[in-house]
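Weekly sync notes, structure subgroup
Attendees: PM, AL, DS (notes)

Item 1: joint prediction request from the bench team. They want all two components modeled as one assembly rather than separately. Inputs as received:
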Amino acid sequence: MIGHWVAISPERGRRPSDYRIEPDASLSKHDPNCPFCPGNEATTPPEIDRVDGAAGDWVIRVVPNKFPALNHEPRREPQRVLGLFERMNGTGAHEVVIESPLHAATLPDLPPEQVETILATYAARARALGQNPDYRHILVFKNHGKAAGASLAHPHSQIIGTPLVPHEVARRTRTATAYTEETGRCFLCELLERETRHGDRVIEATDDYVVLAPYASRFQFETRIVPRTHHHDFAASKAPQRRAIARALRRTVSRLANVLGDPPYNLVVQTAPLPTADTGHSPQAIARSLHWHIDILPRLSQVAGFEWGTGIHINPTPPEEAAAALREAAC
Amino acid sequence: MIGHWVAISPERGRRPSDYRIEPDASLSKHDPNCPFCPGNEATTPPEIDRVDGAAGDWVIRVVPNKFPALNHEPRREPQRVLGLFERMNGTGAHEVVIESPLHAATLPDLPPEQVETILATYAARARALGQNPDYRHILVFKNHGKAAGASLAHPHSQIIGTPLVPHEVARRTRTATAYTEETGRCFLCELLERETRHGDRVIEATDDYVVLAPYASRFQFETRIVPRTHHHDFAASKAPQRRAIARALRRTVSRLANVLGDPPYNLVVQTAPLPTADTGHSPQAIARSLHWHIDILPRLSQVAGFEWGTGIHINPTPPEEAAAALREAAC
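Output from the run, pasted for the record:
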């Protein structure tokens, strides 16, 4: 991330395989108690969207989150509290994408077309929510594994529309537009050029995408999937590009699994704030500077006091080492 | 925290006791394999400092971290990498404070004087490291419990001197000085006044300190211990003030234990950057605006994709509810 420091502090003598976390073999293909498993459709709130397979059964469902972080209420302006804080109501959408009928499926277990359809569903929901004038940003993310915050094992992702531009998104927007203003170029476009020339941190590069271990990786084995074609808005992505990125995603999670077993991870689709957002930058500046991509953040160690106190993450695996291990892994 | 949004999203029907984590009863008072237990002094790097008890045995030891996040090397200026990133060597101190000879002691298990001596040791080491012209900030923190990042169960804290002002410290400094410039007052001094008048988020208030559940708590049951007397620099704290804060700390961790069992937590001493730091603010502005305090961050749920993507933490326990439960708890 631009504007962030990371402490890369190799632990002597530890190899990538030392961080391995064995997959949970007790997970069956179907769990009668799982609200996301077929047969239990009535236990979720009513469907927002759904994709049916060739046999007529659903292959993907989108439902409202039963325990939303934000509620769908009309947006009100922030109020002052105690004269010191601002408070606003938790307006927002919070949707869940159930990625497969299979309870224990990881992304590499799914057929490539299914992963493509998952990305298409993300984009369709992001477009639909982006039409709501109350929202300023749409975040698509996935938590895999308990240690990464997933409360249910069944594969699912989440989509949240927020009534403000989250400060982390605002910070990325600020640093990216500043870079473009100074150099005339998109930071990620330039990064792809330089990183592919250099090679050390490249995991895979095709005509359509580059998969990298980011220079200042906050997390061990952090990977970033970047489409070659510059565009600021994931929701506007087209099917052929999504097909390529779905391939990259499936292959990357497969590499991670081959090196690390079944690591818990957070996946985040990094995209631009909505045009309704008052970011202080013109829509043209945002379109030129931001470049959507997907970050996969394995959670092999705990974020602790040092990180909360400083904002600096300690990462014991240099990205060059992570890239080498992942590059060589089967996928 | 100023300048941060938090999503407070109560989970209906959950009471504070539902978050309880039972203490690990298997921990004994002494573990022959623990490098911090008496008898194993030779397994740590040579002592930097030590406090002896009445019987002549040590009660606190300070040793270098065997696996430091940063190494003590001469500071070099940042270099450009790939023309896009800056890199600097990981100069820095990383010390461990072994808080007690007892393997399983939590802060409330220790006599009040011992907690006071722990704080005195923090301050002495922060003062000593602050003399090194290579450092820009000294961070004192403690990780308690595996889920909070503690790799060893034996009670210990860590002190890190960094060769730069961490961005989180820079951000706090920026927002605090901006507040003081605008209002002529210290934000925390004003907060104490208003919060004690209001009462909802106050856990305990004496003439010497106030313990609060912060308005925009990022973590469930987050607590902040603030000395009444304004000072920017923890390292300069005096013994009578530390005695009062040690009491607050011991009582607060005891309240947390009575409500939550033995929750994992991160403790962070929030203090001003060193005078050697180029923060863009005068030493006078920093002295007027910053107010040292201690944050205790229980780790009851996982930080996940939403937090990494947005910077916004989701907290299911409103601070008013946390404060009420902790206020009523025995200590």
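Discussion: Chain A touches chain B through 64 residues (CB under 8 Å).
Action: AL to compare against the crosslinking data before next sync.
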